[in-house]
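User: If you would, consider this record:
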Amino acid sequence: QVQLVESGGGLVQPGGSLRLSCAASGSFFSLGAMGWYRQAPGKERELVATIDSNRNTNSVDSVKGRFTISRDNAKNTVYLQMKSLKPEDTAVYYCNAEVQRTYGSRSSSDYWGQGTQVTVSS
């Protein structure tokens, strides 16, 4: 079994900072690309940022310059450092990972964390 456990969400004031973490645990061979998504009330879930196994990153324009995605492969963990937070960043944030379950697997499986609430308000 594979689990993604998120932490770091909470309530912050506009302009504040927050760091989200998502650690993969269980039985698997390797992690591929990982990413963060978010879903605000009444809106579709959207991609925020991704990072591949070589630490190449990408992010949506709305968070460029403010959010940084990173990973620690030794800890099977992906992070999202959020700075200069805005009220429109308020959402449930979900981590995602491509997981190769066993050595020699012909394809990977997609796993999601349970989500962590980020609220930006004064």
Notes: DSSP finds no helices and eleven strands in the chain. The radius of gyration is 14 Å.
